[in-house]
Structure prediction request, 279 residues.
Amino acid sequence: MALTKNIRCLDAVALISSYLDGGLGWRERRRLEHHLAGCPACTAYLDQLRVTVASTSTLTPEDVPSDVLDGLLDVFEKFHRDQD
Amino acid sequence: MDDAALLQRVVAGDASAFRELVVRYHPTLVKVARYYVGSAATAEDVAQDTWIAVMKGAASFEGRSSFKTWLLRILVNRARKTGTREHRQIPTDPVDPRQAQRFDERGMWREAPAPFTDVIDGRLSSAPLLAAVRAAISELPEPQQAVVTLRDVEGLSTEEVADLLDLSVANVRVILHRGRSKVRDAVESTVRGGE
Prediction:
């Protein structure tokens, strides 16, 4: 849990989400990477957030309620019948 | 089958293709609509109206954007017209007050976090983990829910999310940071519970 001269853990954590997305400017990125190099705790947090985002990206859609689905399909079929 | 192929079938009147698109995207539409409108019921109505607009407009879709972007744009335009919310308070401070409690007065961790990789290894998409992630997202405040869903579930870029929701990229990053950090908390509880 090193306290680097430029950045505190509290500030590093606020940058990590954007860092994962490649959204930091070079100066901020360098500052964060310098901090991470000496701080196992923030490096662990980076790992945690990376795993969290990876898990989120594997979510499948929730079920659509059957009445909603049936209602939309009724409208769809009527629309195409009227087109014919 | 990809979205574009399904849409072609929708134009030809294939109800099963339309059903597949609804199954893929309806939950996301409801979450994004909720960002604009005051109730879950109105968000559901806006999402359903969007599908009706899609079935009527499918033949005129020119493919200049992806189907997903086109669909979300229709939704957002409708939700904005319907929306009755006051102007939202969008956080700009990257330091989340809730998260700040985990640090001492020098800004250092009170209790160091442990990496997930060692514990989770190979269980990234295990059912309990995904259930915890899903539940955590559904409990986020609406702006975080919309942004996390669009960015991390649907895979839009930060810039696309900003453009769609009419927010600055910096705002999206702050909202995303806060949302992801709450989802991380849920993953941590699950991981610790499973040790």
Observations:
- The CA atoms of residues 41 and 47 of chain A lie 10 Å apart.
- The two ends of chain A are 70 Å apart (CA to CA).
- Chain A has a mean pLDDT of 90.
- Helices of chain A lie at 9-20, 26-37, 40-57, 66-83.
